[in-house]
């Protein structure tokens, strides 16, 4: 029997890599995307694309039924922490209301498996050097808050179906900066993420900039987890297969590097990879940006085959080459 998975947001940068990871494992997939930030050309030939919003419950339910979907990988949403401070209502509508509508459609269609794309932004600025799944959540932006609420929605929906013959089974994957490219035609087109901002500036002959150099970090710039998108996509597939098999999973996993990289280090690596020497401009801090967040990936390594398979140089080079070929 063929098991079909729906990837919401599957025409986006991360979503398209998840779709490709499913195909590489011989798994069937359908994409749901409103193309507000995704690209139809990112969806591989032969993969059905349902154009629509997760807020449209009847459309989502119809798509789930029509394609015989057995599980959902939920990546659709508004993903920009800084911008969410200026657009909180939009963020909540897309990420909270949208997830609630998706769960409603899944329940109506009898779909009881979901892998949720969460975020390390749920931790805010933790007072520990290395975040684990037991670190208290304290989001500092509407985006981080909306992702935490999304996790709660899954938890509560699972509780409500706990006594059913087929209860909702779920897990949430928390991660922060996803970079690089696993395919030469897939690139990050976000107007807010660091890698594409640096790359677009260099391609246009402009000087990339750093937002804030006065953070309490070794070089004054933000420190983050940077993980390769293909590594990330692989763990989504492993999580989906575990849910299929009835394997017990934790409610949340950090897909963390365990070793942070600063924004200034990213700039240096980009200059090395591109061969374009530059000294970045300095701009003020962005609201909603924590100084440091680095997560352990130990639990995910145990259960989801998670590990860092790419170096920072490989991440930067693959991102640069994919964008240049676009």
Q: What sequence of helices (H) and strands (E) makes up the elements? A: EHEEHEHHEHEEHEEEHEEHEEHH
- Tell me the helix content: 25-40%
Number of domains: 2
So what's the overall shape? globular
Low-confidence stretches: none
- Sequence of strands across the biggest β-sheet: 3-2-1-4-5-6-11
Task: Give the CA-CA distance, first to last residue.
Answer: 37 Å
Rg (C-alpha, Å)? 19 Å
Output the CATH class name of the largest domain. Answer: Alpha Beta
β-strand number: 14
Overall pLDDT score: 95
CATH homologous superfamily title of the largest domain: NAD(P)-binding Rossmann-like Domain
GO molecular function, one term: UDP-glucose 4-epimerase activity
Organism: Cellulomonas carbonis T26
Domain NAD-dependent epimerase/dehydratase: 6-256
InterPro entries: Epimerase_deHydtase, NAD(P)-bd_dom_sf, UDP_G4E
């Amino acid at each position: 029997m063929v098991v079909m998975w729906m990837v919401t947001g599957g025409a986006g940068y991360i979503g398209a890599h998840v779709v490709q990871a499913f195909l590489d494992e011989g798994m069937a997939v359908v994409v749901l995307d409103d193309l507000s930030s995704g690209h139809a050309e990112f969806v591989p030939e032969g993969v059905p694309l349902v154009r629509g919003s997760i807020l449209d419950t009847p459309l989502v339910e119809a798509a789930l039924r029509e394609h015989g979907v057995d599980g959902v990988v939920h990546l659709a949403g508004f993903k920009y922490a800084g911008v969410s401070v200026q657009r909180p209502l939009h963020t909540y509508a897309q990420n909270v209301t949208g997830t609630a509508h998706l769960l409603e459609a899944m329940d109506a269609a009898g779909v009881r498996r979901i892998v949720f794309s969460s975020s390390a932004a749920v931790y805010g600025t933790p007072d520990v050097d290395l975040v684990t799944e037991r670190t208290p959540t304290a989001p500092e932006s509407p985006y981080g808050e909306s992702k935490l609420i999304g996790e709660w929605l899954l938890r509560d929906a699972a509780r409500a179906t706990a006594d059913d013959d087929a209860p909702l089974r779920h897990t949430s994957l928390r991660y922060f900066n996803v970079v690089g490219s696993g395919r030469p035609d897939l690139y990050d087109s976000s107007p807010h993420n660091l890698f594409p901002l640096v790359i677009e500036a260099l391609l246009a002959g402009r000087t990339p900039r750093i937002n804030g150099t006065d953070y309490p970090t070794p070089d004054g710039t933000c420190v983050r987890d940077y993980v390769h998108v293909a590594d990330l996509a692989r763990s989504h597939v492993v999580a989906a297969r575990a849910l299929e098999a009835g394997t017990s999973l934790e409610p949340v996993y950090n897909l963390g590097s365990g070793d942070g990289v600063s924004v200034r280090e990213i700039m240096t690596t980009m200059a090395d990879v591109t061969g374009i020497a530059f000294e970045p401009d300095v701009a003020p801090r962005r609201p909603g940006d924590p100084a440091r967040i680095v997560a352990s990936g130990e639990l995910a390594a145990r259960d989801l085959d998670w590990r860092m398979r790419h170096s920072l140089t490989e991440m930067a080079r693959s991102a640069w080459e994919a964008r240049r070929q676009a």
